[in-house]
UniProtKB/TrEMBL annotation:
InterPro entries hit by this protein: 6-PGluconate_DH-like_C_sf, NAD(P)-bd_dom_sf, UDP-Glc/GDP-Man, UDP-Glc/GDP-Man_DH_C, UDP-Glc/GDP-Man_DH_C_sf, UDP-Glc/GDP-Man_DH_dimer, UDP-Glc/GDP-Man_DH_N, UDPglc_DH_euk
Active-site residue list: C283
Domain UDP-glucose/GDP-mannose dehydrogenase C-terminal, chain residue ranges per copy: 339-462
Gene source species: Neorhodopirellula pilleata
Functional note: Catalyzes the conversion of UDP-glucose into UDP-glucuronate, one of the precursors of teichuronic acid.
Protein's UniProt name: UDP-glucose 6-dehydrogenase
Amino acid sequence: MTTVSPAHASPTITPIRKICCIGAGYVGGPTMAMIAKQCPDIEVRVVDINATRIAQWNSDTLPIYEPGLHEIVMESRGRNLHFTCEVDSAIAEADMIFISVNTPTKDFGVGAGRAANLEFIEKCARKIADVSTGHKIVVEKSTLPVRTAEAVKAILSGSSSGATFDVLSNPEFLAEGTAVEDLLSPDRVLIGGESEAAIGALVDVYAHWVPRERLLTTNLWSSELSKLTANAFLAQRVSSINSISALCEATEADVDEVAMAIGTDSRIGPKFLKSSVGFGGSCFQKDILNLVYLCEYFGLPEVAEYWEQVVKMNDYQKRRFVNRIVRTLFNTVSDKKIAIWGFAFKKDTNDTRESAAIYVCRDLLREKAKLSIYDPQVTADQIKKDLQDVLRNGDAELSEASARLIAENVEVVDSVEAACCNAHAIAVLTEWDEFGKVDFPAIYRSMQKPAFVFDGRNVLKSLPLDEYGFVYQGIGFRR
Ligand SMILES: NC(=O)C1=CN([C@@H]2O[C@H](COP(=O)(O)OP(=O)(O)OC[C@H]3O[C@@H](n4cnc5c(N)ncnc54)[C@H](O)[C@@H]3O)[C@@H](O)[C@H]2O)C=CC1
Ligand SMILES: O=C(O)[C@H]1O[C@H](OP(=O)(O)OP(=O)(O)OC[C@H]2O[C@@H](n3ccc(=O)[nH]c3=O)[C@H](O)[C@@H]2O)[C@H](O)[C@@H](O)[C@@H]1O
């Protein structure tokens, strides 16, 4: 990270008329659909190098599943919302360009396994520098390590056309499954920058529907760092309650009761205290590891160690869940059929990135279990790809063996009933609402006996499963 002079001073900025968003993913798509819906006076173009994804955004089957998303896309698409692969012209014509590309954990070279891979961000900055003329506002929407704007500004300042730029940080706080709700009524929108005029221009966009008191402005670096910090704090709460769940199982305390008891303290608050098989999703682990890397980079090993523990506790929780299944099933799951209920990392999304289900299934396969997997939104291809990737773990030589392991031991089915037929156990890994509504006596009859249920989300806890004959175990309590 080098120090460069501030971005070119901004000329007078007129109200934003055209927006371009680079990256039509989970963030770019829904965020821009909301801006287009709320600001009919602004033309929004979402661009991506992935032509298949753009085609999906232009079809009736959107590339991501989010409650309410279809409706808001249909309202604006073709009017002031466009999805296209024409990256250069969309950038060239825009007044404001959002960068919303992926920032995965680096899996090679310096910082591998921890640092963010900023290759895609840098490519966007270079592309913007190449094709821009006049003055543009560039908005970092992706989650980035603190001080990335410095590099973005340095690249932009090399624009050969003499274009000038303001750089803003505007991290996104939406959660998957509630993206539309979160975008419609955010707790806050955070905008960091150096130029009052540029900040004002973005504030005016959001002010079309977000109350002014929820539009927070800070300096660039506070904004960049707040995003990583918010995710680290949220994940830390999950790991904290999960650590207590292990203690509850050992002591006959009940983790949901403990969560309720501490959550009513207004200083602690009730949210993000739901004990589970472990947090997943594309961001928590990636962002914490990035924070850990930054702390090490800035010579703060104690701070790095503190945050790394959140990820270690999450790995422990997933392992602990599998160990409990194996132990309870008389110390072997070899050749036993286990019904997996849910594969997405949380309900109401088809996203499986870093889902706890991937790791639980991997470990069960290594124990030679036979898995029958059902998820209402995740495709069979996606499930098999995730399992192939995790079993292979980057080693090409393991491709054939892991493909065989999956072919022989994994089936993906289209109902919980099919998954459970002749199964020895059920493992609930995603909290889909429909799981609470199935005909449990019929499921019980179709299973091997004793019929076990391992509820990694405690969603079946209030049902009389023991009365139906099941042996039921959840997270963080004993019956
Ligand atoms: N997924 C989520 O719920 C949230 C994600 N974020 C952050 O937002 C950022 C984006 O995340 P997602 O939308 O989930 O990623 P994603 O992987 O779903 O989408 C990123 C898109 O960017 C495209 N892309 C990459 N390089 C490009 C280039 N040079 N030109 C044009 N398109 C390019 C990819 O093809 C891909 O379609 C990440 O930094 C993430 O940490 C922040 C809040 C929530
Ligand atoms: O940067 C991001 O990507 C986003 O990450 C999270 O959103 P998301 O990962 O979509 O979903 P969450 O609702 O935060 O859940 C994350 C994981 O934690 C788990 N979780 C959550 C809450 C809880 O109490 N217990 C629990 O196990 C969920 O099941 C899920 O696996 C944050 O909540 C968003 O604010 C942020 O914008």
